[in-house]
Amino acid sequence: MVGGKLALTSGRDGLLVRVDPERSAELLKKPGARQAVMGERDMGPSWLTVDAAAVDTGEALADWIDLALDYNSLLTHRP
After folding, report:
1. 3-state SS assignment for residue 35
2. Which residue(s) pair with 49 in the sheet?
3. Where's the TfoX N-terminal domain (predicted)?
């Protein structure tokens, strides 16, 4: 949580990560990344799911955490 808003979480499918929607297309090209879906509904461009196998190293996990924290920190500073 950042500023009371979910930034990322882990689950059985891997990570659910909130990212800058303007970077979604770029980030979807990263290994294991796909558009997040809840049930059968697309969660929108700010939400990506990253397969657990794609974050099996500390560096890969840290990269996604940094992306989430960077974007979500910006949201908490907007008026």
Report:
1. strand
2. 16, 34
3. 7-70
Cα-based angle 72, 7, 45 (whole degrees, multiple of 5)? 80
pTM, 2 dp: 0.88
Pairing of strands 47-51, 33-35: antiparallel
Residue 4, token pair as written in the block? 């009371």
Nearest in space to 19 (alpha carbons), one of 11, 27, 30: 27
Fold of 8-76: Aspartate Aminotransferase, domain 1 (3.90.1150)
Tokens of 2: 């950042």
CA atoms of 20 and 66, how far apart (whole Å): 12
CA distance 48 to 43: 8
Render pLDDT for 1-48 as a digit per residue (tens, 0 to 9). Answer: 887 888 999 988 799 999 999 999 999 999 999 999 999 999 999 999
